[in-house]
Write a structure and sequence with these properties.
The chain is 34% helix and 14% strand. An eight-stranded mixed beta sheet has the order 2-1-3-4-6-5-7-8, with helices on both faces. The protein contains eleven helices and eight strands. The protein has a single domain (4-302), classed as 3-Layer(aba) Sandwich (Rossmann fold), CATH 3.40.50. It is globular and about 70 Å long.
């Protein structure tokens, strides 16, 4: 675990940005930047975090920063890393530069996954942080590959035909780990030390590293702004979002949850799932609980933990 002495004293994400109150993406970015160790370049895919922190002529970023399109953040990070290597070979640059990518779930699970896959396969040295608010929040709360089953979004609206999004959430960590990279981790903004420790590990890896951090969105999740951290914590306490690391292909559980809360505790606190609590949708709640239980058992097995 990190100590306070290890944190960068300067706030590299300035206050005064236009992100919503309770925005989990801003918390995820601020925490990550507290772990920088030297010269750092941030690459940012289009998304909430970008549009609200770089409104011309202002910027909240106190590090070299590049705004990139939805689909090519990892490709641009690859080019920046290659450029610094070229400068080092010529003797025009001597310091190591850490490159951090911030992208939402839409720009990672869906639009940007091709560029990310290529960058991981080529083993470019950067940290890719996906702040997961489980929908395309920036453009109107449309469903993404990360949106959970049953959530009502503007493109998967709950009604008489479908109970919200019919599909299930992708396993981003497993997809990234399948590329044979050294470090992948899941995290939650509610568990700050676990998350920041993982960011530190990821930065120190010689090669690509990926962190999938759950970053709640009060606007899209239909919860109070003061409950943002509570939602991110409930996701872990219900076992809906397990915290673990994958180091060189080996899974390791970061936090045990011996007495989990029912997943209903997480769902009923969010307006996007309110329709599931109608009598005719009881079966959907049971499906989500079953998926949560089976996924937890799967993670335990991968981590070498005894079955419960």
């Amino acid at each position: 675990m990190v100590t306070l002495k290890e944190l960068t004293p300067e706030e590299l994400l300035a206050s005064g940005h236009r992100l919503c109150g309770g925005c989990g993406a801003s918390v995820a970015a601020r925490m990550a930047l507290k772990m920088t160790r030297g010269p750092t370049v941030v690459i940012q895919a289009t998304g909430c975090l970008e549009v609200a922190t770089t409104i011309y002529p202002y910027t909240s970023w106190k590090v070299p920063y590049a705004h990139i399109a939805f689909e090519n953040a990892a490709a641009v990070a690859s080019g920046v890393e290659a450029a610094f290597k070229a400068l080092e070979r010529r003797g025009a640059w001597k310091e190591h530069v850490d490159i951090i990518v911030f992208a939402g779930d839409g720009g990672t699970f869906d639009i940007g996954i091709q560029a990310l896959s290529g960058a991981l396969e080529r083993r470019h040295d950067f940290v890719y942080i996906c702040y997961d608010n489980e929908a395309y929040m920036n453009t109107g709360i449309q469903r993404s590959g990360s949106t959970p089953h049953g959530a009502s979004t503007t493109t998967s609206p709950a009604g008489s035909v479908i109970p919200g999004k019919p599909e299930w959430k992708k396993d981003l960590a497993a997809i990234c780990a399948a590329h044979g990279i050294d470090y992948v981790a899941t995290a939650s903004i509610a568990y700050w030390n676990d998350y920041m420790t993982k960011v530190k590990k990821a930065i120190e890896v010689d090669g690509p590293a990926v962190i999938h951090v759950l970053a709640s969105c009060p606007r899209g999740w239909r919860c109070d702004t003061s409950d943002s951290i509570k939602m991110a914590r409930l996701a872990v306490q219900t076992r809906y979002f397990p915290l673990y690391e994958i180091e060189r292909g080996k899974y390791k559980l970061s936090l045990k949850v011996p007495k989990p809360l029912p997943v209903e505790e997480l769902l009923k606190a969010q307006g996007r799932f309110s329709h599931l609590f109608k009598p005719e949708r009881k079966g959907e709640l049971e499906k989500i609980q079953q998926w949560t239980d089976e996924n937890w058992k799967r993670i335990l097995t991968l981590c070498g933990e005894p079955p419960e």
